[in-house]
Amino acid sequence: MSEPRSTTHHIHEVFTQRWSPRSFTGEAIDEKTLMSFFEAAHWAPSAHNSQPWRFIYALKGSPEWEPLFAPIFPQNQIWAQNASALVLFVAQTQWIPPLMDHEVPLPYHALDVGAAAMCFSLQATMSGWDTHPIAGFDKESAHNLLGIPDLFAPLLLMAVGRRNPDISALPKELQEREKPSSRIALNELVSKGLFQL
């Protein structure tokens, strides 16, 4: 990174090293490495230990790639096409809790899958890879193309790859954004006791 991020308080450097590039080299990632990211993801915390996450992945150039790539909105396909892998994070939205005999909603499924996605991304960063979460995709299309059951919801796609310092292949407007983003000052987000704006 040309402009290191700074923090108000000391934290592990992995949190500031992780960001979401769009410029990828397209080089292959081996499945053993990718599986280590899934290993980290499935150790995320979840409400009632329900573990509502499911992961669908495809490697660039494989037969599985197109059904994962096709639902991505065109403005994101421009750069996602150079990723080494695509991962769809899917959430189980209902479950049968212990001591019950019928399904009920899993109200925290999105939060739990978000935690798994962050664990996935941090492990990738620590392994020398990068990730970019993609919200811009057709969820209904993904549901149909990938055979996802009705009680499961596709929440986000993740592009995985090696960051390419040559950003010339990106459209001009994306080249300008190809750098680590800043954050709102911590003292504007944290309040003691009562909510404060």
TrEMBL record:
Name recorded for this polypeptide: NAD(P)H nitroreductase MhqN
Enzyme Commission numbers on file: 1.-.-.-
Sequence ranges assigned to domain Nitroreductase in this UniProt record: 16-162
Keyword check for Lyase: no
Gene that produces this protein: mhqN
Gene Ontology MF terms in the entry: oxidoreductase activity
InterPro entries: Nitroreductase, Nitroreductase-like
Keywords per UniProt: Oxidoreductase
Superkingdom classification of source: Bacteria
Organism: Saezia sanguinis
Assigned protein family: Belongs to the nitroreductase family.
